[in-house]
Amino acid sequence: MIRELLPDILLSQSSLMIIALAALVIAVIAVFQAGRIRNAYQERVELLEEKTSTLWREVDEMRVTGFDSEPPVLTESPEGQNSDARYRTEKAAYDRLWPQIWHLYDRVGAFLRAVEAGDPPGELRLDARNAALDARARLNNNRPFCCDTAEHLITQLIDVEIKAHLTACQYLDDLKDAGGHPSDHDRRVMRDKCSALHDHEARELMTQLVQVIRKRTLNNG
């Protein structure tokens, strides 16, 4: 009976030895692999420390160089280019508008002075009317390129000069109907209305417009 069981016992012992040997081999491999991983990690840490040290040295050098060197030249950004383009466009609009506005003010003034003096207005009446129409048309063409304040002042100025022109025209028409002999009262009323419109309100609007154009162009140029 014992002889029959002996091969089985020996077989079991051999299996245990093989398993133990395999476990030992696995343990040795694990220890070796852990050592390799630890060495690789240590090398990476040392490399990172070296790079960090180098980076800090470069930062220090940049700080020193930054204090000693001249400030960098700033290039114009696209936003600055757009702003400059808007400035040139707006200034060009005022360059086109201002001569016509001044021409309107001058022509209306010449017409009013002739009427007040009792002189024949001749072509001055038509000149003043055409100057107002041209100023209105030029404003409409350049309205998108003007600032709101300038547009408002120019619109008011044209309206005031048109009112002054119509007041003088109405006086001439009434004078014609009366046989060419105006009363002192009618002449005084006409003169006061035209003076309030042209000599005061229009002149004040012109002054404000000049200030706005100077601020928008000369100060920003």
How do the helices and strands line up, and which of them pair or pack?
Blueprint: H1 2-68, H2 78-117, H3 124-142, H4 148-177, H5 184-217
Characterization of the model:
The chain crosses the membrane at residues 15-34. Keywords: Membrane, Transmembrane, Transmembrane helix. This protein is mostly helical and 221 residues long. The protein contains 5 helices and no strands.
Features:
membrane, Four Helix Bundle (Hemerythrin (Met), subunit A), 5 helices, single chain, rod-shaped, transmembrane helix, 221 residues, transmembrane, mainly alpha
Number of helices: 5
**Domain module tally:** 2
Strand content: under 5%
What pattern of helices and strands is seen along the backbone? HHHHH
- What is the helix content? over 70%
Principal-axis shape equals rod-shaped
Describe the biggest sheet? none
Number of strands: 0
CATH architecture name of the largest domain:
Up-down Bundle
Rg: 49 Å
What is the arithmetic mean of pLDDT? 78
Q: Helix- and strand-based class?
A: mainly alpha
- Under CATH at level 1, the class of the largest domain stands as Mainly Alpha
Distance between the termini: 119 Å
What is the CATH fold-level name of the largest domain? Four Helix Bundle (Hemerythrin (Met), subunit A)
Spans of at least 5 consecutive residues with low confidence: 62-79
